[in-house]
């Protein structure tokens, strides 16, 4: 997995019972079957989602 997708923080977010947790789990599931180009797209998508949640007051995106 990529740096973000394989991080402990993402593992923690995936355990949340929230919309954010569901989205993180969905991206992680897609990443399991993705090639390297798709992995980069998924990681970028996840980073954008987390940044958006942060801007809405849903926690830090780092």
The helix/strand series, from N terminus to C terminus, equals HHH
Q: Look at the helices and sheets and give the structural class.
A: mainly alpha
The DSSP helix count reads 3
Radius of gyration: 11 Å
How large a portion of the residues is in β-strands, by DSSP E? Answer: under 5%
Task: Count the beta strands.
Answer: 0
Mean pLDDT: 88
- Uncertain residue ranges: none
Distance between the termini: 17 Å
**Quick one: biggest sheet?**
none
Layout of helices and strands:
Blueprint lengths: L7 H7 L4 H14 L3 H20 L7
Helix pairs in contact: 2-3
Characterize the structure shown.
It is built from three helices and no strands. The protein has 62 residues and is mainly alpha-helical. It is globular. The model has no long low-confidence stretch (mean pLDDT 88).
Please summarize what this structure is.
The protein is mainly alpha-helical and 62 residues long. The protein has helices at 8-14, 19-32, 36-55.
Keywords:
single chain, 62 residues, mainly alpha, 3 helices, 0% strand
């Amino acid at each position: 997995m990529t740096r973000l997708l394989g991080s402990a923080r993402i593992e923690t977010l995936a355990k949340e019972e929230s919309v954010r947790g569901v989205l993180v789990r969905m991206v992680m599931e897609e990443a399991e079957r993705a090639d390297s180009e798709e992995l980069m797209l998924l990681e970028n998508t996840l980073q954008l989602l987390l940044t958006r949640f942060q801007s809405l007051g849903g926690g830090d995106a780092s």
